[in-house]
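Allow me, if you will, to draw on your knowledge of protein folds for a short while. I have a record of one protein: its chain in single-letter code and its fold written as discrete structure tokens. Could you please explain, in whatever detail you think fit, how the structure tokens follow from the sequence? The record follows directly beneath this note:
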Amino acid sequence: MKPILLDGNSLNRAQLAEIAHGAPVRLDPAGMAAVQRAADFLAEQVRRQEPIYGVSTGFGSNADKLLGAHRVRAGLPGAADSGDSVLEELQHNLIVTHAVCVGEPFAPPVVRAMLAIRINTLMRGHSGIRPSVLEALAALLNAGIVPVVPQKGSVGASGDLAPLSHLAIVLLGGGEAFYDGERMPGADALRLAGLSPVKLSHKEGLALNNGTAQMLATAVLAIERLEDLLDTADLAAAMTLDAFAGRLRAFDPHVHALRPHPGQVHVAANLRQLLQGSTLSDIAYHLVPRFRPWQPDSWTVPARQALGFDLGWDWVPFSQRHGRERFYQRFRPFRGGKKHQPQDSYSLRCIPQVHGAVRDALEQAKRVVDIELNAVTDNPLLFPDLAEAADGSGRGIQIEDQVVSAGHFHGMPLALAMSYLKAAIPVLASISERRLNKLVDPATNDGLPPFLIGNEDGTESGFMIVQYTAAALVNDLCSRAHPASVYSIPTSANAEDHVSMGANEGRHVLDMTQDLGHVLALELYTAAQALDYRRDMINAARGLARDGDAEALAAKVQGAPLPGHPDREGFLAEVEGLRQELAASAEFQPGVAVKAAWAALREAIPFMGRDRAMDGDVATAVRLVQEGRLLSAARAARD
């Protein structure tokens, strides 16, 4: 893979994702010059014995403690001399005492992204770290050493102190790391990779662990997943719409021009593209038969006995049309699967408004993340090139103007953006589950079989429990959607009295994307079954109309007047009109892109004509979504 240049100014989400998944990095020479300038400036201030937070003072609530030239404890009986200066010991101790996270380790892509983010922000030259330490970090990353970083322990201010210390401790020859897939002591990983431990100098421990790299890394990787999941959600919705023979006018561009939220407009356009070429959507109501269980005498043509279903309509008698004459001039008096109404339920009709709002939440998160990727997030900040007093007073430059303690480590911008996504993810999963539920419920699925199975003998459950799993996932997502960012717990003896909890937010969002993908996979799996039934039922009616006469089609109509009844002749004439319309129709098909995704799914999961073990089907559907195979097929067909 081509190395990604880190210069502190131009890193983007796509590049970070490449690094996370294995791309090496290289350091920009111009950036390294700025890093050296800041390190030289800091060394000069130390030589001049200027009081600088985190360099010649303690940290957090210890900020009022100035470091002396000699250790007080040196006079204790048996005291050993480490050989390090007090300033170096401060930086070393900062790392080794802060690496206290717990839980399962982050996956390697998250840790690699954290390393890249930390290097990139330090490349800005406002942190005081030496170039040699950045080169050591880059060598660690490029060698494939992945520090073991347990997932829990950051409060998101002062940055991600604990998890970043787990990164840095390996650089010092401590902690644990994965190397060639094996977990081992950090010192062994360095040795096997041919690298040497680093000894930290002024402020370098603070520069390494004081920033937003964990929350930012998880946010970027979550956004990477969500971009495809949002397109997958649109695809699942489109397949469900075709399975319902849904109504598309709610997605017309002139409709959305009246409420032009960007995400909403985008989703409506995407649905129109995905459903282009569909002859199922917007089909005339009366052409859609409803499912009836197969019976031995359902079909007279042997080839059709293999269909595994029967179909039918209800006829609306002449006596029930009073005051509705105009309607029946437009639509034939046959009630099949589709109800005679101008609109679908909210989970179908409001897809642009719901999916679009989630897209807008994602765009807001992208905006925040794109700024953060090239921001300086440690403390204090160095301004070695500052030429005049910060207040413009003309009083001359002072150390306080060039070394500024501020709050860029505070993760609230990321935390709130992730809180927004945490709320949005269950919304997308919830509307997907509602569509899935409509597909399996005979009261709402517009004439499809109950639970999408024939069940002639009453022994089959079909897709009933698939909806249970989706419901359980949605409930779990909703339970995790509470924003961590609203609940600050002070730390460091109240010196750090308001924190962001952004690390928890980012970790939650990254985890939640997996379950969102599972829900969408279940909808696609179910929608494909429903689409098969819908298409085959309508095409079976078309075939019957082409091969038979009005009497053959009339046998599928309930409520028909018996022979000799005064309405019988008029009824047969109306059946003949239905027959001619069906016979003249081309074969009914879903949208081109939907059909391509359906075909990709059917290559891996066959239609379920009878109950079978479904665990393998579900696992396959989940994998197809994770690998993006259905989305790729739809995109290729659409383009």
Q: What stands out?
A: The first helix runs from residue 13 to 20. The chain has a mean pLDDT of 93. The chain has 24 helices and 13 strands.
